[in-house]
Design brief:
It contains four helices and five strands. By secondary structure, the chain is an alpha/beta fold.
């Protein structure tokens, strides 16, 4: 069994997967959509990944504000969590994702991934891996 990590955004969802021992996280892919409210394809793809990797639980990045308050994107994430839970039948855990995109950006810069476009293609799945790694470390 594995755990899936997600970084949910307006038009992308970064996806990461744990190893079978649930000790490490690997960036898997970035799911994109044309419009923010068109999530059906995204949910179908996540369900397919869950089936393929025998996922037992999903960790979804929860974008709290720096003052710990809940903003618009956090509310949208909560709505997505409910849809995701219904579609997959799995437990979905909200996990604080503050500063994961900043950390992902640093990792890409240190890894000498040049160009904004190149970083943009992978930053969401790297952020998902960081979210998942933080969750796994807490276990």
């Amino acid at each position: 069994m594995r755990i899936l990590g997600l970084d949910y955004g307006a038009k992308t969802v970064g996806v990461a997967i744990s190893d079978e021992l649930m000790m490490t996280a690997q960036a898997l892919e970035t799911i994109t959509r044309d419009r923010e409210n068109k999530i059906r394809h995204t949910l179908v793809r996540i369900k397919d990944i869950c089936d393929e990797y025998k996922v037992c639980r999903i960790v979804l990045g929860y974008p709290r504000n720096m003052d710990n308050s809940i903003g618009l994107q956090a509310r949208k994430t909560e709505e997505f969590m409910h849809e995701l839970s219904k579609r997959t039948g799995l437990e979905v855990i909200l996990w604080d994702e503050r500063l994961t995109s900043v950390a992902a950006s640093r990792i890409l810069c240190e890894g000498e991934v040049k160009g904004r476009y190149e970083r943009k293609k992978v930053i969401d799945k790297i952020a998902a891996a960081i979210i998942l790694e933080n969750y796994l470390d807490s276990l």
